[in-house]
């Protein structure tokens, strides 16, 4: 139920993001979009609070009354409310943000951090749940997947100025057809419409690669993800850029859903985990390479053909794969021990060894 109500909360923010990105003027804090968003907060915070209150009535006291994984979300509820009041005051006094400044507003940053703590409650709950195990089913892990995926959409929202999923196929092909910079003509000559530069698209690809792959690697280190997990996560992650652009870049968004499916196939084949470092690294690099190969492929298929600069469209997925590999190394520099030795046993072993030498 926490994950389900969290979807209401997350979708409410997506609707608000759509309004900010597609409506000409928003002159007041009191809009239907804010109503959906803040009502989502009300229901999910009410549910979390009820879980704690129910335990208190059952006789539990203090931290024991808070369900596993719920403490951070519980503490974030009053903080989110305070930032909401601050946001209303900010808009009343200084007006409504309409440009990139919306992503740097202190009240907005406070809202997104506390919201992230609230909607990832199912993830923290599953992380320590004894019934989840190392190989959970998709149904058992789904609330955690949804919570983390919606949290990732918050990151992508506040990094919208570096989100590669917001570019249309034609803009991607045009950018990668430039000989140099945004002012150069594509190879082959002829006038072109003004669009993003190759540099801007390349940077956006790198940023989006990290934002979307990092949560998957985080989960893969903890669990052997059931088939369909990455597909579900990537499908959710595409909703925020889709809402911001009114889904005008649908082929690009769908390419990520396909990439999620291919990543699920890679997990099934490679079985990456914290104990299988080589497989983990291979998955990180291959998943990123496939994802951005599909991105370029979808842009080319629906945006007018392959870009004119072969170094860009062939090298960009390779760079993405190398970034993915680097992430894998950072997340898992050393293979985890499947059955760690308890500290007491290790101490006893050293004591016996020292006694033997004596």
From TrEMBL:
The chain crosses the membrane at residues 35-53, 65-86, 98-120, 141-161, 201-219, 249-267, 279-300, 312-332. The keyword Transmembrane applies. Keywords: Membrane, Transmembrane, Transmembrane helix. This is Uncharacterized protein. It comes from Nonomuraea jabiensis.
């Amino acid at each position: 139920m926490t994950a389900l109500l969290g979807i209401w909360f997350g979708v409410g923010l997506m609707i608000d993001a759509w309004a900010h990105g597609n409506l000409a003027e928003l002159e007041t804090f009191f809009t239907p979009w804010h109503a959906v968003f803040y009502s989502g907060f009300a229901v999910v915070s009410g549910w979390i609070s009820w879980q704690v209150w129910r335990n208190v009535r059952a006789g539990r006291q203090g931290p024991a009354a808070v369900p596993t994984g719920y403490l951070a979300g519980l503490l974030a509820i009053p903080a989110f409310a305070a930032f909401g009041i601050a946001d209303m005051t900010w808009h009343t006094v200084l007006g409504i943000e309409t440009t990139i400044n919306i992503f740097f507003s202190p009240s907005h940053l406070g809202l997104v951090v506390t919201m992230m703590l609230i909607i990832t409650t199912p993830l923290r709950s599953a992380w320590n749940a004894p019934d989840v195990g190392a190989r959970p089913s998709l149904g058992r892990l789904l609330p955690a997947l949804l919570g983390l995926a919606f949290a990732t959409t918050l990151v992508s929202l506040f990094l919208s100025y570096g989100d590669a999923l917001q570019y249309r196929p034609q803009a991607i092909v045009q950018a990668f057809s430039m000989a140099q910079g945004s002012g150069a003509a594509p190879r082959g000559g002829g006038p072109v419409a003004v669009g993003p530069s190759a540099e801007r698209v390349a940077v956006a690809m790198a940023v989006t690669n990290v934002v979307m792959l990092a949560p998957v690697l985080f989960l893969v280190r903890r669990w052997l993800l059931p088939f369909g997990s990455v597909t579900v996560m990537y499908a959710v992650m595409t909703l925020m850029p889709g809402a911001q652009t009114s889904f005008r870049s649908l082929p690009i968004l769908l390419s990520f859903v396909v990439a999620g499916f291919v990543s699920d196939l890679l997990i099934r084949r490679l079985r990456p985990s914290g104990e299988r470092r080589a497989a983990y690294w291979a998955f990180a690099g291959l998943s990123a390479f496939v994802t951005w190969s599909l991105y370029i492929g979808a842009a080319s298929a629906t945006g007018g053909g392959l870009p004119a600069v072969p170094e860009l469209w062939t090298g960009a997925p390779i760079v993405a794969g190398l970034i993915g590999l680097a992430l894998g190394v950072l997340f898992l520099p050393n293979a985890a021990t499947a059955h760690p030795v308890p500290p007491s046993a290790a101490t006893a072993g050293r004591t016996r060894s020292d006694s033997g030498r004596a």
